[in-house]
Please model this.
Amino acid sequence: MSNYQKAQHISQCLQLAINLEVSVPKPGNVSFNSSFEATRVEHFLASAIAAGPSFQEAAYRGTLVSENSLDLGKVGLGELIKSCASDVAAWQSGGNTILGTVMLFMPIAVAAGMTPTKKAFSLDFAELRRNIDKAVKSTTALDSVHLYEAIDIAVPSGLGDAPDLDATDPNSKQRIIKENVTLFDVFKIAEGYDDICYEWVNNYPLTFEAYAYLTGQLKRKPLNVAVTNVFLKVLAERPDTFIARKMGKDKAREVSEQAKAVLELGALETAEGKKRLEELDRKLRERGNQCNPGTTADLIAATLALCTLGGYRP
Model:
C-alpha cells in the first residue's frame, strides 16, 4: 500500500465514523430523526465529505514522519484543523457541526499515518496511541494561532470564559506567538473544563476506554444499540463539558444521573428503557437545545474512528 493509498484509507475511516455517529439517534443530538433549529443531519453528512481532504493530508503527513521525510513538529495540526474548518463551512449552511470532532480526529489521522500497517491494514493500537501522544506534544505556537483562527471560522457556541488566552480575545493570538505557547499548552489550560482538551493532554483516555466497551457491544448488538449504550455510559460517567459551560456543572451532573438511570433500565433493549430514553431526549431539547451533550457526541465519534480504523464496517 502506497502512502497515498494509506492516507486515503485513513480518511475514509474517519469520514465513515462521523456518518455512523450522526446516524444513530442519541438523546439531545442531531440525527436522521431529530434536528436543531438551524442544524440538520444533512449538514453533518456534508461536513464529513468536506473534511475528507484534510483528514487525508493529515494522514499523509504522518506517513512522511514515519519515513523521516518530515519533522513531526512541522506536521501542522493547527493548520490542518483550520483548513478542515474552512472546508466544512464552505460545504454546508448549518453552522458549527464537527469542529470538536475534527480537533479529536486530526492527531488520530497523523498518528495512524505514522503507525506501520500490516497487509490487510491493521494497526497496532498501542503504537497508534503512543504516536497520538507524540503528535500532540510536538505542536507549536503557530498551531495554536491556527486553531484560534479555526474557531473564528466555525464560531462554536458554549466557549465560556477561559481563565487565560481566551479564544474570543483578539489579543490572545499575539500573546501566543510572543510567549511561544504551543497548542498542547493551550489545551492544558482548558483541560479542566473541556473534555476535548482533556483528551489531547492525557492521551485520549475517555476515547480508548469507550472503544474497549463499544467493541464488546458491537460483537453482540446492532450498531444503534451499541452506540446508544456507549453514549449513555460515557455521559453517565463523565458530565458533558459542553453542557457544563452553557448551563453550569450542576445541570451537567443532573443530565449524567439521568443518562445513568436510562442505561440501567436497558435503554433501547427494554420497553421501560426506551420510554425513559425518549423522555431524556425531550428534556435535553427544551429551551433551544441548551442541554445538547455535544462533547459526548464528539467523544463517541472518536471512539467510532478507532472502530473503523480497526476494521469495523457496518
